[in-house]
Amino acid sequence: MRHHSLKQLGLGMMAAAALAAPAAGWAHAVAGMRVFPATMSFDDPGVANEFSTNYSQIKADGVTTKNLAFAYAKTITPKFGLSIASDYNWITQPGQPNQSGWDNVTIGAAYQLFVNGPHEAIGMLALSDTLANSGSGGMDSNFSTISPEFAFGKGFGDLPWSVKYLRPLAISGAISEDMPSDSTQPKMLNWGVSLQYSIPYLQSFVKDVGLGAPFNNMVPIVEYTMSQCVDSYSVCASSGSLDRTGSVNPGVIWVGKYYQLGVEAQIPANRASGNHVGILVGIDVYLDDVLPHSLGAPIFG
Fold it and tell me: Which of 38, 85, 113, 228 lies most in the core, judged by the most C-beta atoms within 10 Å?
């Protein structure tokens, strides 16, 4: 949907839809004592079994975009998994008919490249394909898009004890490139990074500061995402993708045993990204823990 529709709707719409792009379907990641919660605006680095849904609403230059995303991820082996995802969009703009419909379906595969428990480091390679003409309501596109991706996470639990209160910190990130099958559509480079502070890690492995429910399961987080055209000037210009667009998303994720809840503000990173603060809320169900002997287990191994 993104490339086809945005070309028709213009820059303001592009910024809106870029900010509303759904998080894809890989679950929470674990490296040693560190649990990386599923980031809400880009992929986290874990291969696992998960169902997730996110809702976002943003406004840019009078154009309001609402997005409800769904994703399901399933492990085939302990290190390899498949996923399927799509999202439903509602777009309203002054003087124009409202638009709504399903975006194209995205299928993906991911491989757990490494997990280093003592240093709380984890990495994942993924490849996804957004299938042409698989959406509805004129919101989809008539070309496919291949997207290779690398995602990573690093906890600070190996810092010296003299700076023990920094140990609950962690960073995660992902970088990908969208390569459409239609040469008139632009190639886009996307990247995201998060800084997170785990209260559960603080109280379990550093010092119990006495926080009770629900604060003892919270992870304050700031996510930062950007996207920019990396094609020729003429292709970028014709698609309206000359500017970098993205957002800064401060918020909090509550991590439970079976699921996580999250809410974040979406602050446009620059003028090209919009002029209103949006909101992003989501829930991720950890099927690994809910159904560990059936749907939450790898098919092989």
Answer: 38
Could you tell me the CA-to-CA distances from 294 to 74, 103, 298 in Å, in that order? 11, 30, 8
- The chain-wide mean pLDDT, for the chain, equals 90
What is the total count of domains within the chain?
1
SS3 235: helix
Chain segment 147-169, per-residue pLDDT in tens: 999 999 999 999 999 999 999 99
14 is a domain residue: no
H-run or E-run covering 236? helix 233-239
Domain assignment of residue 296, yes or no: no
User: Which pLDDT tens digit goes with each residue over 48-83?
Assistant: 999 999 999 998 888 899 999 999 999 999 999 999
User: For position 206, which CATH number holds?
Assistant: 2.40.160.40
8 A C-beta contact, residue 247 and residue 276: no
Q: Please tell me the predicted confidence (pLDDT) of residue 59.
A: 86
Tokens representing 194 are 């998060």
Does residue 167 sit in helix, strand or coil? coil
The domain of 194 spans 31-291
One DSSP character per residue, 180-221 reads ESSTTSPPEEEEEEEEEE-HHHIIIII------TTGGGEEEE
Q: What pTM was computed for the model?
A: 0.88
